Amino acid sequence: MEPGGTTYLTRERLRELEQELHEMKTKGRAEIAAKIAEARSHGDLMENAEYDAAKEEQNLFEMRIKKLEQILARARVIDSKDLPNDAVYILSNVTLENMNTGERVTYTLVSADEADFERNKLSVTSPVGKALLKKKVGDHVKIVVPAGTIEYRILEITR
């Protein structure tokens, strides 16, 4: 969730979350209920580890449903076409050059709920995301990260 309670999502991510919630409420709940019923059929519930595990799984499952419902209730769909292209904003693709190594990398700035480091999607609330916001092509940015300080130069901003 972003500051102020609003969760900014792309239309694609909104659909993904809605689909996940639907699957969980229909198929997922039925599967967990079947596991609990199977475990219950094994006798004494006081000493039934399978039953305890199924109930714990149900608890975690319901917590995920509640979280998805909260995200969707606060969701605001954003479209990159609606944002300026003169600086780094959410949904910007930012190509950076590491000033120490010369390595180039491109990140897409997204909401915290869409962040995926393996796909180079950085949250605007992460240290790197925060440091890049509102910067322009050619700007140098020093970012303090757990491994130390990294200095980047912004090479390109696209949508």
Oligomer: single chain
Query: For the report, how would you describe the main beta sheet?
Result: 5 strands, mixed
CATH second-level architecture of the largest domain: Roll
Strand content: 15-25%
* Low confidence ranges: none
Summed up, the helix count is: 3
Main sheet: strand order = 5-4-3-7-6
Describe this structure in words.
The structure is a single chain. The chain is an alpha/beta fold. It has helices at 11-40, 49-73, 127-132; strands spanning 7-9, 75-77, 93-98, 104-110, 121-123, 140-145, 148-158. The chain folds into two domains: 7-77, Transcription elongation factor, GreA/GreB, N-terminal domain (Helix Hairpins), CATH 1.10.287; 80-158, Transcription elongation factor, GreA/GreB, C-terminal domain (Chitinase A, domain 3), CATH 3.10.50. The chain contains three helices and seven strands. Helix 1 (11-40) packs antiparallel against helix 2.
How would you summarize the topology of this molecule?
Blueprint: E1 7-9, H1 11-40, H2 49-73, E2 75-77, E3 93-98, E4 104-110, E5 121-123, H3 127-132, E6 140-145, E7 148-158
Helix pairs in contact: 1-2
Identify the notable features of this structure and list them briefly.
159 residues, alpha/beta, Helix Hairpins, Chitinase A, domain 3, 2 domains, 5-stranded mixed β-sheet, two-stranded parallel ribbon, 3 helices
